[in-house]
Design a protein that fits this description.
By secondary structure, the chain is of the alpha/beta class. The chain has a single domain, classed as Vaccinia Virus protein VP39 (Rossmann fold), CATH 3.40.50. Helices cover 39% and strands 24% of the residues. It contains 8 helices and 8 strands, in the order αααβαβαββαβααβββ. Strands 1, 2, 3, 4, 5, 6, 7 and 8 form an 8-stranded mixed sheet that branches. Strand 1 (63-66), helix 4 and strand 2 form a beta-alpha-beta unit. Helix 3 packs across helix 4.
Length: 213
């Protein structure tokens, strides 16, 4: 069936046991990623750019696309009028595809969960699409992402159902609220991220928008 190639790649990236394997998988997938992921009805980029456009004016300042991949989120934000886009991703193959779009002011190879070389409060907003899933970026990534977004700025992200408890995301969100580092603006209902995928169409995620304190 038409989604078989996508499902095969999804299996590879979700079953990778270390960062080297994960990077190799995304490098290998980069050239066909956009077509493959659209084929399974991937909803998250549209959901997150909807949250950004609801809460962040176009002229608010630079927007960080964290885990930018091929730049699907950036492409939608660019259409919506956001002009200063900065992306980070750990895959050079994915970054090459994002760079080819010609919409990013800057792209850097960086790993979420490690320190980011941006000043405190540098960004007006941050979008994190499809990164907080089982075996991907850890919940601790949020500490650095909150740091680089200015007070009043917005973080919009989704969290996969498998990672919500098992990977500590529920606890991290609650910790950051309790510490007064951010406040919840809104969240979506759970939604199927890839509803046309034969293998993974049943998996759900929930998207959130928080304002940095």
């Amino acid at each position: 069936m038409a989604t078989e190639q996508t499902d095969q790649w999804l299996q590879k990236v979700f079953e990778a046991t270390d960062r080297t394997a994960q990077i190799a998988n995304y490098d290998g997938w980069a050239d066909s990623y956009d077509a493959d992921i659209v084929r399974v009805g991937y909803l998250t980029p549209s959901v997150l750019t909807g949250l950004i456009s609801r809460h962040v004016p176009q002229d608010a300042g630079a927007v960080l696309d964290a885990g930018a991949g091929t730049g699907m989120v950036g492409a939608i934000l660019s259409v919506l009028g956001y002009r200063t886009l900065v992306g980070v991703d750990m895959s050079d193959g994915m970054l090459a595809r994002a760079r080819a779009r010609g919409i990013y002011a800057e792209l850097r190879n960086r790993v979420l969960g490690e320190p980011l070389d941006f000043p405190d409060g540098h960004f007006a907003a941050c979008a994190i699409s499809g990164v907080f899933n089982a075996g991907h970026a850890p919940a601790s990534s949020l500490d650095e992402l909150v740091r680089v977004v200015r007070p009043g700025g917005v973080l919009a992200f989704n969290i996969g159902e498998q990672a919500w408890i098992a990977d500590g995301f529920k606890a991290k969100l609650e910790e950051l609220v309790a510490a007064g580092r951010w406040r919840l603006l809104t969240h979506t209902e759970p939604y199927r991220t890839m509803p046309l995928s034969a293998a993974d169409g049943h998996f759900t995620a929930q998207a959130f928008a928080f304002a940095v304190a």
